Amino acid sequence: MPELPEVEVVRRGLTDHVVGRTISRAILSGARVARRHLAGPADLMARVEGATILDADRRGKYLWLVLDPPHDDPHALVVHLGMSGQLLVEAANAPREKHLHASFDFADDGPQLRFVDQRTFGGLALAELHPDRHARTAHGHGIPEPVLHIAPDPLEPSFDLAATARRMKSKDSEVKRVLLDQTVVSGVGNIYADEALWRAGVHGRRPASALTKPALGRLLGHATDVMLEALGQGGTSFDALYVNVNGASVYFDRSLNAYGQAGRPCARCGTPIRREEFANRSSHFCPTCQPRPRVRRG
Question: pTM to 2 decimals?
Answer without folding.
Answer: 0.87
